[in-house]
Amino acid sequence: MNIAVAQSGGPTCAINASLVGVFKQGFKTKKIDAVFGSINGIEGIINDELIDLKTVIRTNEDMELLRQTPSTMLGSCRYKLPDYEKDSVVYEKILSCLTKHRIEIFIYIGGNDSMDTVVKLSDYFERIGSDIKVIGVPKTIDNDLPVTDHTPGFGSAAKYVAASVQEIIRDSSVYSIDSVTIVEIMGRHAGWLAASTCMLKANGEEAPHLIYLPERSFSVKNFIEDVRKEQAKHKAVIIAVSEGIKIDPEEYPLESFRSGAEDVFGHKYLSGVGKCLERIIAAELNCKVRSIELNVMQRCSSHICSKTDIDEAEEIGAMALGAALSGNTGKMMCFKRVSDVPYAINIEMVDAREVANKEKFFPDKWINKAGNNVLPEAEKYFLPLIQGEVKIKMKNGMPVHFKR
Amino acid sequence: MNIAVAQSGGPTCAINASLVGVFKQGFKTKKIDAVFGSINGIEGIINDELIDLKTVIRTNEDMELLRQTPSTMLGSCRYKLPDYEKDSVVYEKILSCLTKHRIEIFIYIGGNDSMDTVVKLSDYFERIGSDIKVIGVPKTIDNDLPVTDHTPGFGSAAKYVAASVQEIIRDSSVYSIDSVTIVEIMGRHAGWLAASTCMLKANGEEAPHLIYLPERSFSVKNFIEDVRKEQAKHKAVIIAVSEGIKIDPEEYPLESFRSGAEDVFGHKYLSGVGKCLERIIAAELNCKVRSIELNVMQRCSSHICSKTDIDEAEEIGAMALGAALSGNTGKMMCFKRVSDVPYAINIEMVDAREVANKEKFFPDKWINKAGNNVLPEAEKYFLPLIQGEVKIKMKNGMPVHFKR
């Protein structure tokens, strides 16, 4: 028999490591003849665009390079399957492609949108009496998937953000004049990544002095007051803010900075919250102010990825295949934390229905009362996820990426 | 006798390494009793804010940490000395402070503005018959200082930019739809840093497909045509652009994106060229477009600094002190390249007058005829500067910074 694997949703530093996990495990399993990679997520199966992965991942060195290469080697998609009742044609195309290539297991690496695909496909195969198994592998830098302790990709993003914000703290502190620096961090609805900057306290940083998350409502009036208070204490005030915080246009008319565009899943492309807050500070307080958007570097800076994250991403990919081989379907693999110190996790399964289209928010108990910072208790959750460095292979002074 | 050292201008990853070079050399030199650090550049000498560096840099480990810490440990300034004829008071304050602390050598680490200070101060000391020597140590990520082959700080910035743009290339290539990604890179008047992205070709990248530098005039009409042509060849077009390119408001009325603010040296704070071009592409071509500003991370991302850069920065600092001890004054230390392969440089001296307030532009001979890319010949200039990685000391999964 053969198996297929695909990658979906936004890039991370760890999604190729999960692919390596599936591929290696498939290679080791005698009854699996070929591991096919589907180009651009589920679209590759719908359009019969598959590649036999052993023709592109040829050596152990290829696997090592793929582990340190960000983004998705097989491309990605944001395709959402229609309901079977409304449109069965695409399901029949998928069945036809999988049958043609003798594929009995499909592993889908993605976020909560991808788990919707895992649910729909596994339901479909059960409904028609097919034995094809579908298993999801979580991934997202947003860390917003339910049930799982955390998601592959998040640790590397958090490590980059922590290192960069620490460097920005140094950069912001050189001049003798007062300044405010706002760092905009990814997270549409869940503030995990912005919240993770609280880890800098473990290395003796006082900053970020303020952290704003979409989990709490945002008041421009309180914000200005918060900044004023911090300015009384610090020459260079550093603020971490989730891109997803909402400025009430009735309170402060700056909505024109927002893009109204939506993707096919109905997500708005948010951007520019940092810039909004910069203009507010410039208008309301008389000081030097700068906003910095960490942008896509947050999800693709594999040159400073977390070894824990990459190793876990590979392992959860391997275990997904194991779960399918044991007869499971419609499940997502997940991490259960056994202990913070020493850090220990188990890899288990959860019904993909409990994850599909759902979000997990940063816990309210870890946000301070004023809603402008994260409590020290959150540190022990975050810290294990960024531990360790991958020895990055370099050529000409630059990281080497795997290319197919 | 004692000596003083100060840091000035915008932060880099290498300016603390030059400080370490001065400090270590001072410590080794028997006739030097103390190395004083001046807080916030020359302002610390004017205001008599000095610290004895051995009270803060206590161990070899401190020195190692300082070498891997970005920005300026002593703070910085953008203070410009008045002409002596117009205002001699500040010169007398400087003399009084240096005399009080028995300081006979002043080492100023900075850019072309700082070299103006080196010229004015050394002229002043000669005029009044003082034996105090003033030597400049170059630093700027912009690489725009005359005479010297390159500037400390540039190699680390170029290494971060190369790694990040390569990661952005991976990130931009995941979806099946056409896209344009614009990366805005620092460089007000000189395009060295944006030009350095040509190094990615050495690692097999075709991108950036287009590189725009302030050394050539920019035409919006040609730009749109360039992008259209690249789109015919590449699904994901990647563009590197210097922040300093000028969009003619008569050709395209987008000047409102620019900030008109000026600093005390008359520099305009440029920002938003990437955003301008993003809006132009969105309006003129029907495709997904994103702009990314690498922002201050370019000058402070010491977690991926160039070992060559850091080592050279330390060495040129040490040699500056040597030059002063040999009786030189009013000079800036500079690199002379002996050979590209194998890479070899000498450290020499140049009259600071040849550098002060002057800029060195990216050579026209290395820009292609169309003015939208960099020629392969530039690679051999850039590549040696980003070689080698500093083993960064980590704690809790994050780099450790030196703090005084």
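qc> Chain B has a mean pLDDT of 94.
qc> done
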